[in-house]
């Protein structure tokens, strides 16, 4: 995979900038990937993960930063796409000096990249990073941060699901539908609450017994099933993957009975081509990065000084964006995932182009 855009190398990624950062003393090895700043500074979290190799770390940061450009574009943000990875074991290698060294590298980019939390990094870590850089968001409430982003993530997923329901059944509600929520974590719990309030019948599963106990105690009307495979094959109208990536694969799609898939999990399609398989089976897939953008909307709002109502309003617009994507998909005869990519690319080109208008 080449980083520079090339017509000869079909796997070239076309990233604007990729920065390798090392501080031997603290053990920091980080890669910051900036895919695009066409819409504004690149925003994306920092993943702290024990990759098997430097090549794996590079591959991940390139994929993730590209994904953020598309997600931020469709979330209507004036932000480009970036992401960072720290190569190491967060349980063993994370230290104040490592995080602060990382913060200094983020600062050295002068605001081309804003960082935030991701797998392996937490709000408290961002407070440490922020001691060396002003280009960090997703901070603790005590430091003016927005706090737990799962609140607006769940709200946005619910909005996307409503738009999908409207597209399939003619009315923007889940009332009377059976919705399978796979993963009752931070997002899944909030989503379950929205669905029940809307009048849906919820079926849930989780591998963690504590999550099952929570749902039994909080919502006794929820049907608990044993495992995502059982849920997928059961009589559900909507499938909401809210655990890990790869929920839609070659085994799942052929047995899926739901007419709609809309959930919070990132990278739900196990590989390219699954979106076509879903479309061929008449399943409407609301692209994950469109419907789960509530979290990034929340942390992005923090850059302006966090205002929950303003951020919620923006996350509510995920309904309109999902509707537009589904209509475009029908009009252009492509799966929604392809329509979403086209819409994101259009916004990056249309708005990014305005920078060519000379100001002074
Ligand atoms: N939190 C956010 O703001 C946010 C934003 C965008 C995307 N996401 C994505 O949404 C998903 C959920 O995020 P979260 O913050 O709720 O995470 P979480 O860790 O709080 O919850 C995940 C839940 O899934 C359960 N789980 C794990 N494997 C499972 C399996 N095989 N079957 C059923 N349940 C399983 C876990 O026990 C846990 O309860 C993740 O993929 C995350 O990347 C989250």
UniProtKB/TrEMBL annotation:
InterPro entries given for it? Answer: Aminoacid_DH-like_N_sf, Glu/Leu/Phe/Val/Trp_DH, Glu/Leu/Phe/Val/Trp_DH_C, Glu/Leu/Phe/Val/Trp_DH_dimer, Glu/Leu/Phe/Val_DH_AS, Glu/Phe/Leu/Val/Trp_DH_bac/arc, NAD(P)-bd_dom_sf
Oxidoreductase among keywords? yes
Per UniProt, the keywords (alphabetical) are: NAD, Oxidoreductase
Q: Name one Pfam family in it.
A: ELFV_dehydrog_N
Residues in Glutamate/phenylalanine/leucine/valine/L-tryptophan dehydrogenase C-terminal domain copies:
147-356
- What is the name listed in the Swiss-Prot or TrEMBL entry for this protein? Valine dehydrogenase
What's the source species for this entry? Asanoa siamensis
Q: Which SUPFAM superfamilies match?
A: Aminoacid dehydrogenase-like, N-terminal domain (SSF53223), NAD(P)-binding Rossmann-fold domains (SSF51735)
- What family is reported? Belongs to the Glu/Leu/Phe/Val dehydrogenases family.
- Taxonomically, which superkingdom? Bacteria
CDD domains attached here? NAD_bind_Leu_Phe_Val_DH (cd01075)
């Amino acid at each position: 995979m080449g980083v520079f855009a090339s017509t000869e190398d079909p796997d070239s990624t076309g990233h604007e900038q990729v920065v390798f950062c090392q501080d031997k003393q603290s053990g920091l090895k980080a890669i910051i990937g900036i895919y695009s700043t066409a819409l504004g500074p690149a925003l994306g979290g920092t993943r702290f993960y024990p990759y098997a190799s430097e090549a794996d770390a590079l591959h991940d940061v390139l994929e993730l930063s590209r994904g953020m450009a598309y997600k931020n574009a469709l979330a209507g943000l004036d932000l480009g796409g970036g992401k960072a990875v720290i190569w190491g074991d967060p349980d063993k290698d994370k230290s104040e000096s490592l995080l602060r060294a990382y913060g200094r590298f983020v600062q050295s980019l002068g605001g081309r990249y804003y960082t935030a939390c991701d797998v392996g990094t937490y709000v408290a870590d961002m407070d440490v990073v922020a001691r060396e850089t002003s280009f960090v968001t997703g901070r603790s409430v005590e430091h003016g941060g927005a706090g737990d982003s799962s609140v607006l993530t769940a709200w946005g997923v619910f909005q996307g699901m409503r738009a999908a329901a409207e597209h399939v059944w003619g009315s923007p509600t889940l009332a009377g539908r059976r919705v399978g929520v796979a993963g009752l974590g931070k997002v899944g719990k909030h989503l379950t609450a929205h669905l029940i309030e809307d009048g849906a019948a919820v079926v849930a599963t989780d591998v963690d017994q504590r999550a099952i106990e929570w749902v039994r105690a909080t919502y006794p009307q929820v049907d608990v099933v044993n495992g995502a495979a059982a849920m997928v094959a059961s009589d559900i109208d909507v499938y909401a993957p809210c655990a890990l990536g790869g929920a839609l694969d070659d085994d799942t799609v052929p047995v899926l009975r739901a007419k709609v898939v809309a959930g919070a999990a990132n990278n739900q399609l196990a590989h390219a081509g699954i979106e076509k398989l879903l479309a061929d089976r008449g399943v409407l897939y609301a692209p994950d990065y469109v419907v789960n953008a509530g979290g990034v909307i929340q942390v992005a709002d923090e850059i302006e000084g966090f205002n929950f109502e303003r951020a919620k309003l923006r996350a509510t617009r995920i309904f309109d964006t999902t509707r537009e994507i589904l209509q475009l998909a029908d009009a252009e005869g492509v799966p929604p995932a392809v329509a979403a990519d086209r819409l994101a690319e259009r916004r990056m080109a249309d708005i990014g182009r305005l920078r060519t208008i000379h100001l002074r």
